[in-house]
Amino acid sequence: MQKETPAAESLAALYMVHQPRLLRAALRILGSTELADDVVQDTYLKLLEGPPLSTIREPVAYLFQTVRHLAIDYHRRRALEHRLFTEEGDGEHVTTTDGADNIVISQQALSMASAALAGLSARTRRAFELYRIEGHTQRDIARDLGVSATLVNFMIRDAHLALTSCRECLLPG
């Protein structure tokens, strides 16, 4: 068995002394004991890979700051995963029809969307197309159309509302 270096020993000692407080700090951010444990363990691994303890001016503050940053990263990642998987995985918009039915439904949806967009003013429709289809920024659209960015935002919103009503007709409930 290898003997740890003095720096690793002092790091381990510092970590062990503050581990309960580190867990509480991570728990406050994450709300889960299991995730807090993961964060605190990851903190130790990160410290082993990081700068030597002797070069850190405030080692305890550095330790807590590392826990805080990792906990926030975990929290953000969980929130993102939750949004991604609940939007895709809720099964709300899954169709079980065969190919011919899908084609008819798609054609009907396209027809309804075209009709909804045709009901908008030419300027609103153009702002929506530039934003959604061509990927222009609202500021660029405002400049091109000679209107304010706020008005462009409202025009895009109006187009979205028109299309949302189409979607509600196709996907009731």
TrEMBL record:
Designated name of the protein = RNA polymerase subunit sigma-70
Q: Give the RNA polymerase sigma-70 region domain ranges.
A: 14-79
- Under the GO molecular function aspect, what terms does this record hold? DNA binding; sigma factor activity
Keyword field: Sigma factor, Transcription, Transcription regulation
Question: Which GO annotations describe the biological process of this protein?
Answer: DNA-templated transcription initiation
Q: Does the keyword Cytoplasm apply?
A: no
High-level lineage: Bacteria, Pseudomonadati, Pseudomonadota, Betaproteobacteria, Burkholderiales
Q: Which NCBIfam families match?
A: sigma70-ECF
Family recorded in the similarity comment: Belongs to the sigma-70 factor family. ECF subfamily.
